[in-house]
Amino acid sequence: MSAVSTYAQALFEAAREREEIEETLENLKEFVDVLHESDELREFFYGVHIPESQKRRAIDALTEEMSTSTRNFLKILIDNSRTEILEDVVPRYEDLVEEYQGKVEVELTTAVELSDEMLDRFKSRLGEILDGREVMLETYVEPNLVGGAVVRVGEKQIDGSVRGQLQGLRQKMLERGSA
User: Fold this and answer.
1) 60 lies in the same domain as 14
2) How far apart are CA 42 and CA 179, in angstroms?
3) Global pTM?
4) Which of 99, 115, 146 lies at the terminal end of a domain, its last residue?
5) Distance between CA 62 and CA 91 in Å, rounded?
6) What are phi and psi of 106, to 5 degrees?
7) Distance CA 85, CA 81 (A)
8) Which structural domain, as residue segments, surrounds residue 76?
9) Tens digits of per-residue pLDDT, 17-72?
């Protein structure tokens, strides 16, 4: 397991025990946003020339309104000299939260924009297939698909597009020496 996954899992367990899962996620996103907005804070947090004790005091002051899990997690990153992984941990932690909540992110790419009714039916059917999980749908339109759809759930992709079927047919023909 990577350091990012290990830290995200440990944070998730701590936040779950304190019943701060969603609050911690929002706090972390907010903290990262602030880091992006302030060059000075970013240099301070990620900088290696700032003593850990000074960083810990600053974290206490900056995060006093945030969850205990958030404050403790940021201090652990500082103590272990792992602040550089913060921005990679946040999306992994978010995945754990969504999984815990029974949610799944799905990307749907079609050749044309689908009606709300069609999208609702798609979400409902896919939710049934995925054991009742709540489908969080991201839709994209790519006219080059010609027709059909490409569905991505996590790392898995199902290409049901006309373009994908034509490419598959072409590949089979090449393998058989027909093209």
Assistant:
1) yes
2) 56
3) 0.66
4) 99
5) 22
6) -130, 135
7) 10
8) 3-99
9) 999 999 999 999 999 999 999 999 999 999 888 888 899 999 999 899 999 999 99
- In the block, which residue shows the tokens 């970013």? 42
Copy the structure tokens of residue 135. Answer: 């489908």
Which structure tokens are listed for 165? 């079927």
Among 99, 118, 138, the domain-final residue is 99
Average pLDDT over residues 119-140: 87
Q: What does the chain look like in DSSP terms, one character per residue?
A: --HHHHHHHHHHHHHHHTT-HHHHHHHHHHHHHHHHH-HHHHHHHH-SSS-HHHHHHHHHHHTTTS-HHHHHHHHHHHHTT-GGGHHHHHHHHHHHHHHHTTEEEEEEEESSPPPHHHHHHHHHHHHHHTTTPEEEEEEEE-GGG-SSEEEEETTEEEE-SHHHHHHHHHHHHHHTT--
